[in-house]
Amino acid sequence: MFIRILRHYKGGTITISDVPLPKGNMEISTEDRQVVDKYIRVLEELNIFGDIEITFAEVKSKYTTSRGATYDKG
User: Fold this and answer.
1) How many CB atoms neighbour CB 32 within 10 A?
2) CA 26 → CA 13, 19, 36, 40, 64, distances in Å?
3) How many angstroms separate the most distant Cα atoms in the chain?
4) pLDDT 10s digit of each residue in the chain, 74 long?
5) How many Cα atoms within 13 Å fall on the side-chain side of residue 17?
6) What pLDDT does residue 32 have?
7) 12-20 vs 50-55, strand pairing mode
8) Are 32 and 56 within 8 A, CB to CB?
9) In a designed cystine with 32, which of 2, 9, 28, 54 is the match (CB 3.0 to 4.6 A)?
10) Where are the beta strands (DSSP E) in the chain?
11) Quick one: pLDDT at residue 52?
């Protein structure tokens, strides 16, 4: 199952769609929550303003390589 996250940050509002829910849970995983929080921190640090709509896959791709190692593409 997938959900949509709507969060307000100091520059606007972000809507992240297609966020997976672990089977049997009503909340996203801790790892996925950390990815979302990190992305929002970057938006705030770079003073990105406005309303943003993005998929979770797009957010996660900014911090994951094809081999599974994580890094910040910035």
Assistant:
1) 19
2) 22, 12, 17, 22, 25
3) 37
4) 999 999 999 989 999 999 999 998 889 999 999 999 999 999 999 999 999 999 999 999 987 765 554 545 45
5) 4
6) 95
7) parallel
8) yes
9) 28
10) 2-9, 12-20, 50-55
11) 96
